[in-house]
Design brief:
elongated, 8 helices, single chain
């Protein structure tokens, strides 16, 4: 019987600096592909509405540029929020056996995912300090882990018993 509480299924620990970076790299590769699709949709839409090859001219208008940046930021945020709320793992996190959980080791809600995203942006703007915080935290939590009351954990499956259910 499956449960949302990963503590019942797997022993957990918080990942180190390089494991987090490796998972982030995998996710960034996938996110670049998603962003390229979003840029293509934007370009094709503006070309259909305003004429061929007008998207670059449109982005010279400050309000249009702000809209475009918000559009790409929203796409990026939804990418992470969707994965975190549908299994607790992005592709990079699956490869590196990591999962996002709340303080009681349960899956996070959409609200928690959005709060985590907000704190990631806020705490990492000054030179990534929100991420590097983990180097000084005894539990290896980033600043945004602590503020959002979520954490990234390593999942290590226990050996499967041979008994049938």
């Amino acid at each position: 019987m499956a449960t949302d509480n990963i503590q019942a299924d797997f022993p957990t620990q918080n990942p180190g600096f390089f494991r987090r970076l490796a998972a982030m790299f995998y996710d960034w590769v996938l996110l670049v592909a998603v962003i390229l699709v979003a840029v293509t949709v934007f370009t094709m839409t503006t070309d259909l509405i305003f004429g061929k090859n007008t998207s670059n001219d449109i982005l010279q208008v400050p309000l249009a540029k702000l809209f475009y940046q918000l559009y790409l930021g929203t796409i990026s945020g939804l990418f992470y929020a969707w994965f975190w709320t549908h299994g607790g793992q992005t592709l990079g996190m699956k490869v590196w056996k990591l999962k996002i959980v709340d303080s009681t080791h349960n899956s996070i809600s959409l609200k928690q995912a959005l709060i985590r995203l907000f704190y990631i942006v806020l705490s990492c703007i000054p030179f990534g300090l929100g991420f590097f915080w983990m180097l000084f935290n005894k539990q290896k939590l980033t600043l945004y882990d602590s503020l959002s009351k979520t954490q990234l954990v390593i999942i290590v499956p226990e050996t499967v018993s041979s008994s049938a259910e």
